Amino acid sequence: MEQRYETLFEFKIRLLKPKPQKGDELVWVFDSLGINELGLKIYKLLSSSESLTRSEITDKLNESEEKVIEALDTLYSVGFIDRLGEAYFISKDLASSIRTRTKRIISKILDDIAKVIEHGG
User: Fold this and answer.
1) Would you say the C-alpha torsion 69, 74, 80, 84 has a positive or negative sign?
2) What are the residue boundaries of the structural domains of the chain, listed by start?
3) Is the four-CA dihedral 72, 32, 111, 96 of positive or negative sign?
4) Which residues pair with 84 in a beta bridge?
5) Burial code of 41-72, b = ≥16 C-beta within 10 A, e = fewer?
6) How many other CB atoms are found less than 10 A from the CB of residue 101?
7) Residue 88 class from Cβ within 10 Å (0-12 exposed, 13-18 middle, 19+ buried)?
8) What is the 3-state secondary structure (H, E, C) of 69-95?
9) Are 28 and 18 within 8 A, CB to CB?
């Protein structure tokens, strides 16, 4: 089947049961949002650093640059990390990021979809 549209951004939202046990919350959140294990590793690495460049992350995790770029793009797109020049960093705790940035991003996407159906292409 021919793809008719270009995907600009894609991620999953799942409500998982049961709620996580103490200490497993971060894994549960990332699984709930369909963010892969590399994304989780990068987030943990950035949370223990002031900032890191893409190549520093690639070296520290011994991953391909392509996979790291994809994971960084996802983390940035959902609002979990920030970027300034070449440096990636975390400026807000995860709960605050979800309640403000992620929620705003999802809301905008849904609003854009609703506008298409209301007003046509």
Assistant:
1) positive
2) 25-119
3) negative
4) 87
5) bbbeebeeeebbebebbbeeeebeeeebeebb
6) 19
7) buried
8) HHHHHHHHHCCCCEEECCEEECCCCHH
9) no
CATH class assigned to 25-119: mainly alpha
- State how far the Cα of 80 lies from the Cα of 11, in Å rounded to an integer: 13
Dist CA 13 CA 114 (whole Å):
18
- pTM strictly above 0.85: yes
Q: What is the pLDDT of residues 36-70, one digit of tens each?
A: 999 999 999 999 999 999 999 999 999 999 999 99
CA distance 10 to 79: 13
- Strand order of the sheet with strand 87-89? 52-53, 87-89, 82-84
pLDDT digit string, tens, across residues 67-93: 999 999 999 999 999 999 999 999 999
**What's the token pair of residue 2?**
């021919």
